[in-house]
Design goal:
The complex is a heterodimer of chains A (170) and B (263). Chain A has 170 residues and is an all-alpha fold. Chain A folds into three domains: 30 residues; 98 residues, no CATH class; 41 residues, no CATH class. Helices cover 52% and strands 2% of the residues of chain A. Chain A has a two-stranded antiparallel sheet. The radius of gyration of chain A is 22 Å and the shape is globular. Chain B is an alpha+beta fold and 263 residues long. Chain B has two domains: 43 residues, no CATH class; 205 residues, Alpha-Beta Plaits (2-Layer Sandwich). In chain B, 30% of the residues lie in helices and 15% in strands. In chain B, strand 4 and strand 5 form a beta hairpin. The N and C termini of chain B lie far apart (55 Å). The chains are: A mainly alpha (170), B alpha+beta (263). At the A-B interface, helix 1, helix 2, helix 5 and helix 6 of A face helix 2, helix 3 and helix 8 of B.
């Protein structure tokens, strides 16, 4: 009996130790946000960090159909948004491709041994990334009424970019 | 799901969730940041609705105004969609490369053998109502958007190139090699077919014209009029009503979105 209790205690201690080690490891693994990226200055991603870690691929996949078939491009789950926010900058202030070695996407995917092929087609640095939003803003000011309607609902959630004033150009 | 909850009460729900997850992972309370700022901003951002068949985008090309030797539309298209970032693969034959590089819009010259009269016109995807490329696509990657734009969903394109065979206008290109340089607004990559999408990224952002039409106007030719075929008051419909125009290969009954005057 005494031995069984002792064993039970050992198991509990062992489990607790393992959990602690896992948690420590999780913290370590989670530290992929690059200091030089815009993301480092924000409290969390477009969704809570834990949610993003597990489900970012689902969000991107959902967004891709919304964009390709529905033409909705600048919601907060847009892939362009991921790149804009998470791209790191080198010493020369130039963006470093997110799928490069030790960069945001690649570092974690490399660790998890999951190949990602988003960047076969998608830009790895924000090249004209604010394009949709800049143009939307431009049209809201100068364009016709019809275009302004569309432009009005296209403002990006991430505030620091372009603010589109609604219903202005009619 | 999280997003919907956050809409009800961004502060409360979010914090609870983070607290719970934080405790479960055994991380310290210090890492549990509220992160309310982003959520509130996200709430304030209105959402767009998916495209509908309320519009059907199209074009009228007046070949009488299209100048022989002018390449402005082609260059504008290349710049707009990152096609000017293509480079010849190492060791590839120059002639072959020029034949195979991606081209969304090209200038075509027609000569009447009897009179010798030369007509110059830009040719691109004609955005058919009944597109043959969509008919033959085995994966459904080639599709017609609700607003009449025929395009390729590169996520499902397997690069079989049936659509290229089916297109009567030779409007599509295949990407043979890894694309090193691409623009955020125009993703493109190896193994997919691509073609003119009427600058869908512009239209989705509230734009009212395409790069080619814009460049043509900037050159002073005004040979390309872009607009909504369903809007009776649009400049496009008025231009179509004012002069005779035709569809190229109208015998195929494709009801193209791009019409030509003067041919």
């Amino acid at each position: 009996m005494a031995i069984a209790t002792h064993r039970g205690r050992l198991v509990v201690i062992g489990l607790a130790g393992a959990l602690f080690a896992l948690a420590a490891q999780a913290e370590e693994v989670g530290g992929f946000v690059l200091e030089s990226s815009k993301a480092a200055k924000l409290d969390n991603c477009v969704e809570p960090t834990e949610y993003m870690r597990r489900n970012h691929m689902e969000l991107i996949r959902h967004q891709r159909d919304t964009t390709v078939y529905g033409g909705i491009r600048s919601t907060k789950h847009s892939m362009a948004g991921c790149v804009t926010c998470h791209v790191g900058y080198g010493a020369d202030q130039q963006p470093v491709p997110v799928n490069g070695d030790h960069q945001f996407c690649e570092a974690c995917h490399d660790y998890a041994a999951v190949t990602l092929n988003c960047f076969d087609c998608h830009a790895t640095v924000p090249k004209g990334e604010g394009w949709n939003h800049e143009v939307a803003a431009l049209h809201a000011h100068a364009g016709s009424g019809a275009s302004a309607e569309v432009a009005g609902v296209l403002a990006l959630p991430a505030g620091p970019r372009v603010q589109v004033e609604e219903g202005e150009s009619k | 799901m999280t997003q919907r909850q956050a809409k009800v009460d961004p502060a409360g729900v979010d914090r609870d969730r983070r607290d719970f997850l934080g405790a479960a992972a055994g991380v310290t309370a210090a890492s549990v940041a509220p992160g309310l700022m982003l959520h509130r901003l996200a709430e304030a951002a209105p959402r767009t609705e998916p495209v509908t068949d309320e519009h059907r985008w199209g074009m009228l090309v007046d070949t009488n105004k299209c100048a022989d030797g002018c390449n402005a539309c082609v260059e504008a298209c290349n710049r707009e969609n990152g096609l000017n970032l293509q480079s010849k693969p190492l060791g590839a034959d120059l002639e072959k490369w020029q034949d195979q590089r991606a081209v969304w819009i090209r200038k075509v010259k027609l000569q009447d053998n009897v009179s010798g009269h030369v007509t110059s016109l830009p040719l691109m995807c004609q955005h058919c109502e009944h597109p043959p490329c969509v008919d033959v696509c085995p994966t459904g990657a080639s599709f017609k958007r609700a607003d009449g734009i025929v395009m390729v969903d590169r996520h499902t394109c397997i690069g079989c190139r049936y659509c290229m065979m089916a297109c009567p206008y030779k409007a599509r290109s295949f990407i043979h090699d890894q694309v090193e340089h691409k623009l955020t607004r125009a993703p493109r990559g190896k193994g997919c077919v691509e073609s003119c999408n009427l600058c869908a990224h512009r239209l989705d952002a509230g734009g009212t014209t395409t790069a080619c039409a814009e460049a043509c106007s900037a050159e002073g030719h005004k040979a390309i009029i872009f607009g909504d075929l369903k809007d009776e008051n649009s400049p496009l419909r008025q231009a179509l009503g004012a002069q005779p125009s035709r569809q190229i290969r109208d015998d195929l009954d494709l009801n193209t979105g791009v019409r030509y005057a003067g041919v």
